[in-house]
Design a protein that fits this description.
With 281 residues, the chain is an alpha/beta fold. It folds into 2 domains: 14-109 and 212-280, D-Maltodextrin-Binding Protein, domain 2; 112-207, Periplasmic binding protein-like II (D-Maltodextrin-Binding Protein, domain 2), CATH 3.40.190.10. Helix content is 44%, strand content 19%. The protein has helices spanning 3-18, 39-57, 69-77, 88-97, 141-152, 169-178, 188-193, 196-199, 224-238, 241-250, 267-280, and strands spanning 29-33, 61-64, 83-86, 101-106, 112-117, 131-135, 161-165, 183-187, 202-207, 215-218, 255-256. Strand 6 (131-135), helix 5 (141-152) and strand 7 (161-165) form a beta-alpha-beta unit. Helix 2 (39-57) packs antiparallel against helix 10 and helix 4 (88-97) crosses helix 11 (267-280). The chain is globular and about 55 Å long. The N and C termini lie far apart (56 Å).
Length: 281
């Protein structure tokens, strides 16, 4: 028998020895993570949570995301994700369009931050009139919320300022630092996860009121018992040292239930997003 075949056979045997209940025909649980940070950050941040789910479910958990918000919404609509973590306005769409069931949310609310280079002269939002603001994605709820805040101050998008799409929150911050943009609209969580040396170079000019955080939902193909097991696993994970480190790293606070009206509050943003997606087609 060839050595290469023996090595492959031994590797397969080892995997089943470590996970004896993982059958060849058992499909992995696909965990879809909202792409508000880089792919590397997503894997590094969520691997401990996936490990906890694997231990309880005795099933492989694969972490997936998407290159941008539009693709993520499309994949959500196609039912690509068994367990979904997404922004509240996208969660509303997932529930309405596909039947995803809300499970838990992060306790710590999110905020949109309008940041400028610390060494710049910008210390008032009106100074950005006629300027360029970098954004991660026009569909991001923090972008919609910040645009609403600026409108209240008399600055209308595409009239008093323009935006450029940087692709990610960290790229938006970098564009504000390297002069390609005068400011950046970013989410609080990606801001916290960015390198400290980068944050030191930024000044927060405006902060939105607190918004409901990222929400976990399960696809309707999962049974009620499976959804309940996942929910209980996440809550138990939060009480472990690994879970505490995970929550602290992301600034998530903890896991909390959603009340029935929470997602409905994001319906206007969801409708706005739907129209923007239609315009992009």
């Amino acid at each position: 028998m060839r050595p290469g075949f023996l090595s492959a056979l031994w590797l397969l045997f080892s995997l089943f020895a470590m996970h004896p209940t993982w059958g060849i025909d058992t499909p992995p649980l696909v965990l879809g993570i909202f792409p508000n940070t880089t792919a590397k950050q997503i894997i590094e941040t969520y691997r401990p949570l996936a490990n906890a789910l694997e231990k309880t479910l005795r099933r492989r958990v694969e972490i997936y995301s998407a290159p941008n918000f539009k693709s993520f919404v499309a994949r959500t609509r196609q039912g690509k994700y068994d367990l979904l973590l997404t922004a509240p306005h996208f969660a509303w769409l997932a529930r309405q369009d596909v039947g995803y069931q809300p499970l838990l949310k992060y306790t710590e609310p999110v905020r949109g931050l309008l940041v400028v280079k610390s060494s710049s002269s910008y210390r008032d939002v009106n100074a950005l009139r006629g300027r360029t603001i970098a954004i991660a994605d026009p569909l991001a709820v923090i972008v919609l919320a910040l645009q609403a805040e600026l409108a209240e101050d008399g600055l209308k998008h595409n009239v008093d300022y323009r935006t450029i799409n940087a692709g990610t929150h960290i790229n938006a911050m970098l564009q504000a630092l390297n002069g390609r943009a005068d400011a950046a609209m970013v989410g609080q969580s990606p801001y916290i996860l960015s390198p400290p040396e980068l944050r030191k170079q930024l000044h927060i000019l405006l902060e939105t009121p607190p918004l409901s955080s990222l929400t976990y939902l399960t696809h309707p193909r999962l049974s009620e018992a499976e959804a309940l097991t996942i929910r209980e696993t996440l809550l138990r994970f939060a009480a472990t040292p690994e879970g505490q480190a995970f929550l602290k790293k992301g600034g998530f606070g903890g896991f909390s239930p959603l009340n029935s009206n929470e997602l409905n509050a994001f319906r206007p943003y969801a409708f706005q997003t739907q129209k923007m997606l239609q315009d992009l087609q």
